Amino acid sequence: MRVLLVLLVVAVASALGVVYTKYRSRLLFAEVQRLEQELDAYDEEWGQLQLEQNTWAEHSRIERMAHGRLGMLLPPRESIIYIKP
């Protein structure tokens, strides 16, 4: 009789362990899905920031800003000195 009771307790404990493990697995899966969506959003934002950085760093824009704000002009071609590395 005692052996049967012990086996019953072990079986119930095992069943509860399976249920808890399955529940925990679903929670972790949901968390992984949420984090993957967050990562996708960050990747998209990173791409937009890189595009914006490239736009701000365009040579023509920098030249316009140097001319407009600072009054800088390109030097005449004959006054440019090229140095070979």
UniProtKB/TrEMBL annotation:
Residues 25-52 form a coiled coil. Its main location: membrane. One of its GO terms (biological process) is cell division. InterPro entries: Cell_div_FtsL. Signal peptide: none annotated. It comes from the Bacteria. It is found in: Cell inner membrane; Cell membrane. The keyword Transport does not apply. Keywords: Cell cycle, Cell division, Cell inner membrane, Cell membrane, Coiled coil, Membrane, Transmembrane, Transmembrane helix. It is a single-pass type II membrane protein. Part of a complex composed of FtsB, FtsL and FtsQ. HAMAP family: FtsL. PANTHER family: CELL DIVISION PROTEIN FTSL. Belongs to the FtsL family. NCBIfam families: ftsL_broad (TIGR02209). Essential cell division protein. May link together the upstream cell division proteins, which are predominantly cytoplasmic, with the downstream cell division proteins, which are predominantly periplasmic. This is Cell division protein FtsL. It comes from Methylocaldum szegediense.
